[in-house]
Design brief:
Chains A, B: Its EC number is 1.3.1.12. 2 copies of one chain form a homodimer. Chain A has 280 residues and is an alpha/beta fold. Chain A contains 13 helices and 8 strands. Chain A has 2 domains: 168 residues, Rossmann fold, CATH 3.40.50; 106 residues, Orthogonal Bundle (6-phosphogluconate dehydrogenase C-terminal fold). In chain A, strand 2, helix 2 and strand 3 form a beta-alpha-beta unit.
């Protein structure tokens, strides 16, 4: 099988490395608008060769889009236009509703599978890729009834090769839930990073006084703006609503602290403790 | 040396275990208002015997307060009242200004050392204790000029035995910085936990769709309300100010998303990325 990886960053690179580990006869063609990333991906053996997009697509059985979600939305229709007869296109974007809409009316919609792997780190670029990133992670496939049986089956098989757990969901429901369990966490972390950096001009204090709790809550503030900006834009309505609820909760905490209402504060924290049931 | 550990939870228990590992001739007396915790601490060999507070203090060379900060504030003066001639009292509370104030005018103030170990986990109780919790962590000693040389030296020696890194700071500065690099993280996490639990009635979605980013940002929501309520109250002014800045940052993100201002959003995220320099 010949596979085109469009976007040679953490996710695209890890996808290729994970599959290579299972199938040493698969061939990987890389596509990246950054010549530097492309060269790096070749030298790290993430892919076997690098080609321009159209050429790569035309030579491949499976095309994997591992680029920011706005680029996925923009490229999906042109790529479907020149997709070979028996090839399949899959995207790995973190939003799904607008991406599915972008493919919706295309005559080759069936060749497209909308997928979202729940996997990542706060690092990005080809150097961040590693073969086990996707292993044991969840792959959410959206609006599967819009994909042809053969294309769906191919993507499912690839996910099984990567030892991923498959889940199926409507693209609108996907975006709503992800706003809460992923996108909101990222904004909470970005905002925390800025708040603390703004205050702590003498950064030595941060090093010495910040414990593992701070590192844990602020870790996602290292995430890529190029990747996350378009996610927030594409999932604007849900993310804005989630942020609204979050700000209200924080305001409740502030009011409780300002009023010395320790009992009410403990009630709220006990409610939050309920997350133990879920996270273990 | 005979050491009284007042509060047989994660911190008190770990303090005892860590020192025991270095000095098998030290004797530990436990104090806990919960008979269940006391029994558990004995059975886990965190301490060698359990006694009522006054009795334990009177038999000890070093008394360690590992209880919620409101209880520390309340007990510090009565304990100093019956502290033996050559004994030293140290507290491990997460706030320092009000605690130092509570000891300020006591004739035996010099026997007291105000300390804060930057260490902890989201778990609590005697079962959560482990010998290496404090190893390689920072111990901040506050207002050290108010402590007698001998008492300060004893506490510094114990910290060195525990392989901790010593730092010194004014108690008011401590509380201001901790509001940003610790207390705010906890509130951000508690509020995130509640926001997501409120929305996701069908919790199966959380299990399947939440990645490691969510776990990381929400981890502190498992923290003990009994411990954290009094910290927020004692550090009210600073925590309220930090929360105010944090809410403003989140509101900026929301406005940017609502207005589709991706450029401004990327600017903010790039600013947050600067945390990489600090966290590595």
């Amino acid at each position: 099988m010949q596979i085109a990886i469009v976007g040679l960053g953490l996710l695209g690179g890890s996808f290729a490395l994970g599959l290579k580990a299972k199938h040493n006869n698969y061939r990987f063609i890389g596509v990246d608008y950054s010549a530097e990333h492309a060269a790096k991906a070749l030298s790290l053996h993430l892919v076997d060769e690098v080609l321009p997009l159209e050429e790569a697509v035309k030579k491949s059985d499976l095309i994997v889009l591992a680029i920011p979600v706005n680029a996925i939305s923009r490229l999906i229709s042109p790529i479907l236009d020149f997709l070979p007869e028996n090839a399949t296109l899959v995207d790995l974007g973190s939003t799904k509703e607008l991406i599915c809409k972008a493919a919706h009316k295309h005559p080759k919609r069936g060749k497209f599978v909308a997928a979202h792997p729940i996997a990542g780190t706060e690092y990005s670029g080809p150097e961040a890729a590693f073969a086990s990133l996707l292993m044991n992670k969840t792959m959410i496939i959206c609006d599967k009834e819009a994909s042809d049986a053969a294309s769906l089956k191919l993507v499912e098989q690839v996910c099984q090769d990567l030892e991923m757990h498959l889940r199926y969901m409507d693209s609108a429901a996907h975006d709503l839930h992800l706003a809460y369990v992923s996108h909101l966490s990222h904004i909470s972390s970005f905002a925390l990073g800025i708040t603390v950096l703004d205050k702590e001009k003498d950064e030595k204090h941060i090093f010495d006084m910040a414990g593992s709790g701070f590192s844990s809550t602020v870790r996602l503030a290292k995430s890529s703006p190029q990747m996350w900006g378009p996610i927030f834009t594409q999932n604007k309505k849900n993310v804005s609503e989630a942020l609204d609820s979050y700000i209200k909760q924080l305001q409740s905490f502030k009011d409780i602290i300002d009023k010395d209402d320790e009992e009410k504060g403990k009630e709220l924290m006990l409610k939050a403790n309920d997350i133990r049931r879920i996270l273990g």
